[in-house]
Design a protein that fits this description.
304 residues, alpha+beta, six-stranded mixed beta sheet
């Protein structure tokens, strides 16, 4: 007969959470943030790993904000309805919205206000103000300017700002990798015709779904039979590639519940047993500095 596990503790929920957070803090878990560089195009809803600064200004040149002609505002200082001003080619520059304005010009007159003469000259009846209808260099974003702070969830408008500022890649916090390991010799794959005593394995889908909603990258492990050596090997291997492990079933005190003993042999069991119902058999353990959450197999208990 297999040796049964016992509850190491049966703590109130608040005490268990405080103990668990203290142990995680002591292991450095909260200060570890793996990062990765991804394309700005793929960065929607990701968290920035550090402040993001503009590479160049936007616009990076003086740009026309209207269709019309670029002029020097002093050339139109005397323009009026009674005394129109005529400009020869060379004294103005035809522009469309977004075009670069030549350095010798410092204002844009809308095309609706321009009278084009047959000889190529233009006639204007209103003066212009300096930089009217011109988007100057850096009007939206200035080179080296902070665009997005650290820890910011990237929105569509942030993606546009980064691209406009010359960035095509951004360093973001990598989502934590969480491996979910269902356990139990009775488990069979969904879609399989089961025999008496066999159970379709669906808990890992529920747990994985919640984890994905919370921002994790989920690694689904194949079910592990009720064999302590197989469970030990599965946990050891999963810990290598995971930030967090979740085991499902085997957390209670039955003759085939090996999770507590296996986790105790590989690391430290911090909590086993919390005063909640259902969900009492939960295990909280550390393998070196990798957190392991051992959940009971009953679906409602696991979810709670």
């Amino acid at each position: 007969m297999n040796k049964q596990s016992i509850y190491v503790t049966n703590q109130p929920l608040a005490d268990a959470l405080e103990t668990w957070r203290r142990e995680l803090a002591g292991s450095g878990f909260f200060s570890r943030r793996a990062t990765e560089v991804i394309r700005v195009d793929d960065a929607l809803d990701r968290l920035t790993a550090g402040p993001v600064f503009a590479v160049h200004s936007s616009p990076s040149y003086n740009a026309a904000a209207m269709d019309g002609i670029a002029v020097h505002f002093l050339d139109l200082a005397s323009a009026s309805e009674a005394s129109p001003v005529r400009l020869e080619p060379g004294q103005f520059q035809p522009v469309n919205t977004g075009n670069s304005v030549a350095p010798q010009f410092n204002a844009v007159v809308m095309i609706e206000e321009v009278h084009v003469l047959d000889n190529g000259e233009v006639e204007l009846t209103s003066p212009a103000t300096p930089w009217q209808h011109i988007r100057s260099i850096g009007e939206d974003i200035v080179a080296t300017e902070l665009i997005i702070p650290e820890g910011h969830r990237i929105r569509p408008i942030d993606q546009g700002a980064m691209l406009a500022a010359g960035l095509t890649e951004v360093t973001v916090i990598r989502p934590p990798r969480v491996t979910v390991i269902p356990t139990g010799s009775e488990l069979i794959a969904p879609g399989t015709a089961g025999k008496p005593g066999e159970i379709i394995e669906f808990n890992s889908r529920i747990l994985g779904g919640y984890l994905k909603q919370w921002g994790a990258e989920v690694i689904a492990h194949e079910p592990v039979s009720d064999d302590p050596e197989l469970l030990r090997e599965a946990i050891k291997q999963a810990a290598i590639s995971s930030d967090i492990l979740v085991t499902n079933a085997g957390a209670s005190a039955g003759t085939r519940d090996f999770s507590t003993d296996v986790l105790g042999s590989l690391g430290r069991v911090i909590v086993h047993g919390v005063a909640i119902k259902p969900g009492k058999p939960v295990i909280l353990a550390l393998l070196d500095d990798t957190p392991v959450i051992g959940l009971p197999g009953y679906p409602i208990s696991a979810v709670l």
